[in-house]
Amino acid sequence: MDTTDNTTSNITSFAADVKEGLTAKEKHLSSKYFYDDNGSRIFMEIMKMPEYYPTNCEFEILSQQSGDILDKLPFKGKFNIVEFGSGDGMKTKQLLSAFMDKGADFTYIPIDISQEAIDALEKNITDALPNITMKPKTGDYFEVLGELTKSSTPNLFLFLGGNIGNYPREDALDLLKKFNAGMKTGDMLLMGMDLKKNPRIIQKAYDDPHGITKAFNMNLLSRINSELDADIKLDQFDFYSNYSPKNGQVNSFLVSLKQQQFYSKVLDTTFYFERDELIWTELSKKYSFDEINELAESAGFSVAHNFLDCKHYFTDSLWRK
Ligand code: AVI
């Protein structure tokens, strides 16, 4: 996913964002900083937890309904499948393999800012699907999008995993409008979106009994210690996560267990915390179908079809520009 930030240029933005976020009136740290090497490993553990349903739901959709997804595409002949932030490609492989079985003529173009991620993905995909035509791109989504609009080949864009839910409304809309601006009329976007459901199921997925989601959040503090040469005492912070069925938001926080301070040598700054003060770390938004339609239309798309898992927990929503 594009939340990977372990590039040299981002080390400075991490420092600046930590300083801004931890001196703000309502403290916050962006969830995009979860995904350094250690955080990415913890996220893999999250995806294996029985409580974290989105991965299995999307895997089910893509392994059982990719043929139906292909049937809904309006393309005649050759097309590109362009994937934003592809991860290890486990789920995408299901779609690519079904498309190949049905004789679709496509080029797979995964885009990621991490060369390492792209190299691993290329090996993973070509090992499983040796006959695939694949043109991976390393770099910023929007630079690559610019190149693609110049060609007349139609595109299916993939933004899987429910990552859109981690963007606050205005940022989500902004991102989708940018995707839209880089697409031609008739291009399609398949987007993973987590749905509103029984609140207990969502609560358990984000406040798991194994402490893995807590470790995922605490990793932000470990990063500050190691990358910004700070002296945060990790055991003086806790994790709290809450799903509100009224607005469909899971909000996650780190909680200061006492009045305390820490110093970062890199930032040459002391940060102060009251007892029970919160650091907001993540939004994970769950959608209703009305909200999906509204978001699509606000960004210049129309919803062609919602592909659902058997429990109706998650959708791969197919949008048309
Ligand atoms: C990456 N993203 C879609 C995950 C989610 O479900 O919001 C990140 C995550 N945070 C806690 N658990 C998983």
Helices and strands in order:
Blueprint: H1 8-23, H2 37-48, H3 53-72, E1 79-84, H4 90-101, E2 106-112, H5 115-128, E3 137-138, H6 141-149, E4 155-159, H7 169-181, E5 188-194, H8 199-206, H9 212-227, E6 237-244, E7 249-256, E8 260-264, E9 269-273, E10 278-285, H10 289-298, E11 302-308, E12 314-320
Parallel strand pairs: 1-2, 1-4, 2-3, 4-5
Antiparallel strand pairs: 5-12, 6-7, 7-10, 8-9, 11-12
Helix pairs in contact: 2-9, 3-4
Descriptive account of the structure:
The structure is a single chain. With 321 residues, the chain is of the alpha/beta class. It has two domains: 4-34 and 201-285, no CATH class; 54-195 and 287-320, Rossmann fold. The protein has ten helices and twelve strands. A seven-stranded mixed sheet has the order 3-2-1-4-5-12-11, with helices on both faces. α2 packs antiparallel against α9 and α3 (53-72) runs parallel beside α4. The longest helix is centred in the first third of the chain and has 20 residues, at 53-72. The protein is globular and about 65 Å long. It binds N,N-dimethyl-L-histidine.
* CATH topology annotation of the largest domain: Rossmann fold
Bound molecules: N,N-dimethyl-L-histidine
Could you say which structural class the secondary elements and strand pairing correspond to? alpha/beta
Termini gap: 23 Å
Percent in helix: 40-55%
Strand order of the largest sheet: 3-2-1-4-5-12-11
Q: How many separate domains?
A: 2
Return Rg in Å: 20 Å
What is the CATH level 1 assignment of the largest domain?
Alpha Beta
Low-confidence stretches: 1-9
Tell me the major beta sheet: 7 strands, mixed
**Helix count from the secondary structure assignment:** 10
| CATH 4th-level superfamily of the largest domain | Vaccinia Virus protein VP39
**So what's the overall shape?**
globular
Q: What proportion of the residues form beta strands (DSSP E)?
A: 15-25%
Mean pLDDT: 94
Order of helices and strands: HHHEHEHEHEHEHHEEEEEHEE
